[in-house]
C-alpha cells in the first residue's frame, strides 16, 4: 500500500481523483499510442511498444531453396561422408592412433589382408584387424568401431597405457602370426640392424655385437633430429671406474663404445625419449622441447657396413633417403596421462596432404599449408592447423615442401626451411615414422600410394553394411527434406499471421509485405460482423461518456495477449494456439485450442489484463485478425495458406473477449491508492501531534491538549485502545478488501473494541480524538468510486456514560475466583509445567497406589491422555483469566491433531504420542478434578492408560532378567484400554516421513580397529540407535532407563556431542559411497580403506542409501581404517616409476598418478615371448 508510483505510472502522477482517468490514459499506459512497427523493421522486439510483433520467435532458416526441395540425387554412390575415424572407448586413443598409422602403410595393410582368414573364429586378432582395415578403406559410415579388436586383445578400456610399448608388443604379435605362415613381413618392413662396438684404446681390440631394432630410441632436447642421431651414434669414453675389461689385455683398459647402424628398414621408426626421472620431484617429468623433424631425412651418413674393414665397391656409399610419413603426438603435461593423436601423410593422383587422426575426428590439410606445431586437443578442423602464409619459397624439382609456421615455439627454431629441406616443429612429437623413398640409384617415389585390394570376403561384409547405412542415410535425407518443407510452410504461415495480427493507429495504414500472395485468403465480412457484434469492453469499463471517438475507435480492434502465448503459437503456427484461462474458475478463452499452461500471472482482480504485467510480456494484436487467423491451415505441397470460407461463431466468448482487454479499473484503483496513502501519511502526522499533546489521548483531557488542534473541541470521540493504535491497519485492510469485493461492501471491526459485550464503554480501555481527526479517519472507510461508507460505531463524549459495567464486573470476579480454585485443585500440573520441562514420569502419577497396586481398582491405576494444546490453552487462561477465555470442554486425547488417521485408528503408538508432545498425561485425580470444571466431550472416549498388576509386572521383570536388560519395557508397565489399534499403513507413512531427513547430523567416532568398535558397542547403552529405531512399533523395546522405577520417562531428544565425535550433515537419500567420500576429510583415508560399523554390523553396500542401511538422525557410526604394514610399504618402494599413458582428452595432476600394470593379462603378452618366437600361432586368430 505504501509503494511509490514507478515510471510506468507517471501518466497518472498528476491525477488526484479516480474519475479523472480516461481512455487516453489507458492507451498511454498500455503503450498503445505508438504506431505498429513494420514487419522485419526492428532488430529485436520493442519492449516499449506493445504493438511491435518483430522477433517474438527465433527466425528459422531454410538451407536449401524452396524450388530445389524435391530435387535430390537417387544415386547412392553420390553420398560423400567424412573420412573414417575410430571410436574411443575411454583410454584407447593409443590404439586408434597406431591403427591409423598401420593402415596408411600400404605394404603392411596388404600383407595383413593376405593372411589366412579363420572362418570358424572371426573374433581373432588378425580377423578383427582385417575387418577394421577393410572398413576404414571401404566403409561409408565415417566411423569405425575397434571394439572387436579391443576384446580380442583383452585390452582394458579404462587403464592408461604407453603407446611405444603397445607398438613393440603388437609388432611382435604380428611377426609371430606371419612366422606361422612362413613370412617375415614385420622384419622386412620395420626391422633394422646395428652393431654395438667396444674398442680397447691400448691394444686396439674391437668387440662387435650384432643386434636388430624396431625403433631407434633417441634422447632429444631443443634442436634438429639429425643432431640427436649424431649424438646417439657418437663414441662414449670408458675411463675411470667405467673402464673396459679387454679380453686381449686380460685387464681393464681405457676404451670406447658406440653404436653403428648397418641397415635401415623400409619403415624407419624413431622414438623420442621425452620422459626423464626427476630426482628432486621423485617422479617422471615430460620434456616439452620443440624438436625440428626434417621432412626428408638422409640416413646415408649414419649407415656403415657391418665390417668397416671390408672394402666397398668403387668406395661409394649407398644413399638412403627417407620422407616423414607419420608422427605420433603425446598431448598432455604429465608422464602418466595425456592423449594420443596420429598425423599421417597421404597422397593421391593430384597432390599430397596430411591427415590428422584424433579418434573420431579426422580431417586433411594440404602439404604446403600444414603446421604440425598447431596440432593439439582443440584442433578439430583443417583451419586450426593451417600455417600462417609466408613468402613463396624457390621452386625446385622436388614436391612442394611443407611450410611450417612455428611461432608457438622458441625463436631459435623459427627457421623451418633449410635449403631445399623443410622441417616440422612440434613440442609433442613422441614417435616419428620415416618411409624409404630413395635407395641406391632408384628414383624417388613421388607418385600416388600403391593400391591395395580388399579381399572379397571382407568386401562383401563391408558392402552389406554400406547398403544398410546408405538406405538409412537416404531416409534421413528425406526426413530433412520434409522438415525443410514444413519449416518453409511455417515461415509463410507465420508471416501471414503476423500481417493480420498487426494493428494500426487511427486510419493510417502501413504497407504490408507478403512472401506468397494467396487469393483464397481475403477479409471475411461474416467474421468481422461477429467480432463487431461483441460487447465493447472498453465502453463497459469506462464511465466517461464524453471520451473521444478516435481513441475509442482505436481500442475497438485491440486484443491484448501474452507474449509467451503468441511465441508458442508462432513456433508451431500449423496448430491451433495454446489455450488461455481467465478467472473465475479458470475458464477457457478460446473455443478450440491445444492445451498449454501459462507461467505468468496475467489477469487482475477485474478479470482483465493486469497493468502490473510488464509491457514486454504483452502484445497488442488485432481482434479481427486474430479471429481470421484462428482456423488457418497450411498446404505443404503448394506452400500456401488456406483460410476458412466463413466463421459461423466467434472464436471466443464475449466474457473471454473482455478478459483480453486493458483494465481501466486498475488504473483508477491505483489513483485511489495514491490518494489513500497521501491522506494516511498526513493523518499520521496529525494524530502523532495529538498524542503528544494529550499524553496518549487519555480522557479526561490534560491541560494543553487543545493546542494540537486548530480550535478547542467541544466534544471528543472515544475509540478503543487497539483501534486508536492500529487505525491505519484497519483502514488498509478495509481498503484492500473493498478492491476484491464484487457486490456487497466489506465490513470492519474498527472501534468495536471500545465497548464491552453489554454495550458499555470500557473506561480503562478507551482513548479520545477530536472531531476533525475522527471524521478524517472515518472518511478512509469509504469505498473508492462510491459514496457508501462502512458502518463505524461512534461514541461522542457528550452522549456516553463512562460508568463501569456491573455485569462485566461480576463475570470478571467469577473468572478470577474460578481460576484460583483451579490453581489450588490442579497445582501438580502447574508445578510440572513451570518446572522448565514438560516431561512427567508416568510412575509418579500412580505413586499413591503403587504399593497396593494389585488391590487398587482400575480407576486409581489409570492415566488419562489429553491434547497438549488443551493444556497450553488452560495454562494461558490461568495466567490472564480476565483477558483470555477458558477452554470450553475437556477433550479426549483422541481429538488432538495427528493422533487419529483417516481410518479412525491411531497413527502411532501411545509412547510416541507422548514423545512427540501431542498428548499430555494426567493422573486419575487430576482428570476427575479437571472434569469438575469442564464438561467432558462426548465425541470420543477418554484416551486412558492402565498400570499392569504386580504379577504381570513381575513376569516382565523375569523376562528382563533372562535377556540381561536393565530396565522394564514401558508397554509392559502400562497398556491402552478402550482405544483403537495402531494403523499399520499410516504408521509406515509416519516412519517414512521421519526418515526423510535433510541436512541431519550424524556422529562419527574413529576407533583403532574392530575389537575396540565391538567393545564400544557392548559398553555403550545407546551407541548408535536413533529415536526412530527405538520406537518403531508397540512391540519393540524402548531405550534403557536409568533405573527400574523410572521405566517410562519422556526424554529430551537433544543429543549431546562428545569431544571424540565428529559431526557430518547428511540426507536420507545419501549413498554410502558418498558418505565415504565425506569421511575422507575426517579420517584421512580413501573410501576403500574405511570400515563403517553400525550396531556391531559393518556397512558394505555402497549403493544403498543411509535410510535403507538404518542410519537415522543423531546416529553414531564407528569408523576405523586400514593402514599398510611395513612389508607393503617396502614392496611399494621397490616399484619402478610409471610410464606415460594415454587417456581420452583428460589430464591428471601428479598427485593422482596410479601404479600401472602395463599390458599384463592381455593377449599381447600371453601369446608372445622370446622363447616362442618361431612357434606356430594358429590359435592366436
UniProtKB/TrEMBL annotation:
Sequence similarity: Belongs to the peptidase C19 family.
GO molecular function terms attached to this record: cysteine-type deubiquitinase activity; cysteine-type endopeptidase activity
Enzyme Commission designation: 3.4.19.12
Organism: Echinococcus granulosus
Pfam families: UCH
Region (Disordered) location: 379-411, 509-529, 1018-1053, 1130-1153
Name the record gives this protein: ubiquitinyl hydrolase 1
UniProt feature, compositional bias: Low complexity: 518-529, 1140-1150
CDD domains: Ubl_USP48
UniProt-annotated location(s): Nucleus
Main location per the UniProt record: nucleus
Biased composition (Polar residues): 1018-1042
A biological process term (GO) from this entry: protein deubiquitination
Listed GO CC annotations: cytosol; nucleus
Residue ranges of every copy of the USP domain listed in the record: 84-387
Catalytic function, reaction form: Thiol-dependent hydrolysis of ester, thioester, amide, peptide and isopeptide bonds formed by the C-terminal Gly of ubiquitin (a 76-residue protein attached to proteins as an intracellular targeting signal)
Record keywords, A-Z: Hydrolase, Nucleus, Protease, Thiol protease, Ubl conjugation pathway
